[in-house]
Amino acid sequence: MVISPTVRGRFAPTPSGYLHVGNALTALLAWLQVRQQNGTFILRIEDLDDKRLHPKYIAALFEDLHWLGIDWDEGPESGGPFSPYHQKDRTHLYHAAFEELKNRGLLYPCFCSRKQLRAFAVAPHGVTSEGPAYSGKCRYLSEEERLRKATDKTPSWRFILPDTPMAFDDLVYGKQTFAAGAGGDFVVCRADEVFGYQLAVVIDDAAMGVTHVLRGNDLLDSTPRQLCLYQALGLTPPSFAHVPLIYASNGERLAKRNGQMPLRSMRKEGLRPQHLIGYLAWLTGLLVKPEPIELLELIKEFDVRKIVRHRIVLPVNWSETLMKSG
Ligand code: GLU
């Protein structure tokens, strides 16, 4: 085993539902990447947006991760040198970064309504994982227009994307290039004063010394935005590995929100962790056969280069078969 005590990785779930196999896969792979290099694994709860979250999901998350055999060296229960590990308790850090960016003229207030924003979806700018790409409408408002609009509406704040293309090497998907301004200027602070995911994740990963980010490929197009923030704030970015998402047999995303296949229900039906881990490792390309395996055994099979790049579609009745084999 290569000893790299400086390797630090994390799993950073948003507790808006019970863990499903897709989240479990991301957690497993992030854990394996860190454990294989004898690094430090961090659990961070991304609970900035109160409305979508419930404490019962956090308690269930701990149980599900423990059941899978995933442990963490730093996190909400155990604490650690970069406490707190809940984003809702870290807003002072996002606030400081927000002020810095604002004072440096890198942000502008945006007064666009939801309706206007939705209309951008059909414009040539397209849609990103965060919704319609912003056209930049409010970027060039005069100071007077801003003051006038601010009397009617509290603005959100957007980060001005630099006028240069962005590129990075993803450990799974290889070289990724993005045109200048791809996705449009993004929100770092909403009108209701909730800080945006992009800002919070960058501040936390940097403050927690994260060297390895492994997460779902739905966030691939967030990475150039995050790299812009790293650059603007003079922070060192981690390496990035994006992993395929799992889809149900009907092609739909497994969403925590729509209650598809929560892990805890499958556990109650008799699913055993070794069976699920072996099956997921096979789907991901880490194992050649879908055989049960102990998580610790899988560490030596992990290689980020083995991870498949195609979307993973679960066969019909996959869970029944697995639960019976338990
Ligand atoms: N909180 C995000 C999610 O649950 C993940 C963020 C990240 O890994 O960068 O999808």
Q: Can you put this structure into words, describing what you see?
A:
The chain is of the alpha/beta class and about 325 residues long. It contains eleven helices and 13 strands. The strands form six sheets. Strands 3-6-9 form a three-stranded antiparallel beta sheet. A two-stranded parallel sheet has the order 1-2. A two-stranded antiparallel sheet has the order 4-5. It is elongated. The two termini are about 30 Å apart. The model has no long low-confidence stretch (mean pLDDT about 90). The structure holds glutamic acid. Glutamic acid (GLU) binds near residues 12, 201, 215 and 219.
Major sheet: 3 strands, antiparallel
How many E strands?
13
* Spatial separation of the terminal alpha carbons: 31 Å
Characterize the overall form.
elongated
Q: If classified by CATH, what would the architecture of the domain at 8-87 and 209-215 and 243-325 be?
A: 3-Layer(aba) Sandwich
| Strand-residue proportion | 5-15%
Give the CATH level 1 class of the domain at 8-87 and 209-215 and 243-325. Answer: Alpha Beta
CATH topology of the domain at 8-87 and 209-215 and 243-325: Rossmann fold
**What is the H level of CATH, i.e. the homologous superfamily of the domain at 8-87 and 209-215 and 243-325?**
HUPs
What is the typical, i.e. mean, pLDDT? 91
What oligomeric state do the depicted chains represent?
Answer: single chain
**Ligands:** glutamic acid
Helix share, percent: 25-40%
- Strand arrangement, major sheet: 3-6-9
Helices, by number, come to 11
Structural class: alpha/beta
Report the C-alpha radius of gyration, rounded.
Answer: 21 Å
- SSE string, helix = H, strand = E? EHEHHEHEEHEEEEHEHEEHHHEH
Low-confidence stretches: none
Pfam families: tRNA-synt_1c
Binding site for L-glutamate: 10-14, 46, 197, 215
EC number: 6.1.1.-
Binding site for Zn(2+): 110, 112, 134, 138
